[in-house]
Design brief:
The chain has eleven helices and 14 strands. By secondary structure, it is of the alpha/beta class. It is elongated.
Amino acid sequence: MQRCLALAEHGRGKVGTNPLVGSVLVRDGVIIAEAFHAEFGKAHAERQLLEKFEQKIRSTDVLYVNLEPCCHEGKTPACTDIIRERGVKRVVFGMIDPDPRVSGEGIACLRSAGIAVTGPVERARCEWLNRGFVSLRTKGRPWVTLKQSRTQSGSTAKPDGSPLKITSIKQDRWAHEWLRARHDAILVGVRTIIADNPQLNTRFVQELPSPLRVILDPQLKIPLSANVVSGDVASGTMVVTTPGSDCAKRKELERCGVRIIDIPLRAEHFDLPLLWKELTTPSEQFHGIASILIEGGAKTWQSFQEAEAVDEEVVLMGAG
């Protein structure tokens, strides 16, 4: 199961609103085949493994997968079908699929076919890996992590409001590897863009995927020279604004490849249910997100906290 989880990570940033899934086939205690869900809309891990495995499957072989095999047909056929067709007799799964179209039905389907099913195994780890997918299916929104950096005295900026370097290089590397690279998107308010001109990428760990960038900008004040809307990264940036904001700048941003999302305000804040719907609905060029990291600034933090839309808070303390 640990190997399934490691394999599943390879799909990070590529599977959209789908789950991260890895699968291995074990014979006499040795892994003889493995696969993972590599891309939104492509074959699931179990199907990919069994389609490319050319040997005859023995009755003692065991198929491991970190998520209950699906039993419904969507963009790809049901995984339970190919498991039965290939003659797999033993399956070990990590967690129940929270999707109401599955949620135990996949297990029941396999058992009705005479397949021995064991699980959940390492359930907590499996659920943590797919906390975004679980949140989508149970709360109707992405998993939201709020990250703050502050000094030991509680400051997040200089007295005049200008940027203050708080975290160490070691802390920055940790945040990039274990926060940014583990979320589908980073969200900040436009004030952060104007004040800091951040890149919002994973430059400290370039081998890991950089998340999408979501900028909350009601009046479309983002500078056209900002790092997040310049060059190749622009196509991975989404600017959330209000309908009817600066039409000329909107056209310039779209010409650069930036995606503009129109969301109305409700009590001076963006309508969150509508924002979640936009961010979690796949389209032709956008596969949706399942997790989001909110990095700043203070007004943005407060708005999500007041809306009770934060699942996890991480505070990095500086030395000052």
